[in-house]
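Re: that chain you flagged

S.,

Sorry for the slow reply, it's been a week of failed gels. I finally had a moment to sit down with the sequence you sent. For the record, here it is as I used it:
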Amino acid sequence: MSHKLVTDFPSDLEVTMTRTFDAPRELVFAVHTRAEHLKHWWGRGNPLDVEIDFRVGGRYRYVEHTPDGGSHAFRGEFREIVPNERIVQTFEYEPMAGHILEETLVFEERDGTTVVTGTSRFADKEDRDGMVASGMEAGAAESYAALDRYLKTLA
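Prediction finished late last night. Pasting the structure tokens below so you have them in one place:
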């Protein structure tokens, strides 16, 4: 089974990314929701400051520290949580405040692996295309590669 990130554009307002992981769904869900796990893979595996209040209405803020000394801050709010199955959250890159997308993550167990499908819904096509042009897919692929490496340490 391929573990390559698959990207699709189901509409002018959406981007869907799907990735398979060799780990149980409960573990893959946990590494998406707990600070002690997120700091090992989110942000492409770079050092990460994590503030997270994982509950409906709770908020998060992640600050990625890049090797060149830069930092990138992201924030959002959790709108829906179905444990081990689904998370709906907002996502905003702080330097682009006001350009908020809604992201739905779905976790499915298939043949001993977990498939994560993330659908990002933007306010308009310009926001979607701008995010894609900024390197959204490459950043997600690097983060999920870091997640793969991290999951192996938890086995």
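What I noticed first: The CA atoms of residues 48 and 64 lie 5 Å apart.

Talk soon,
D.
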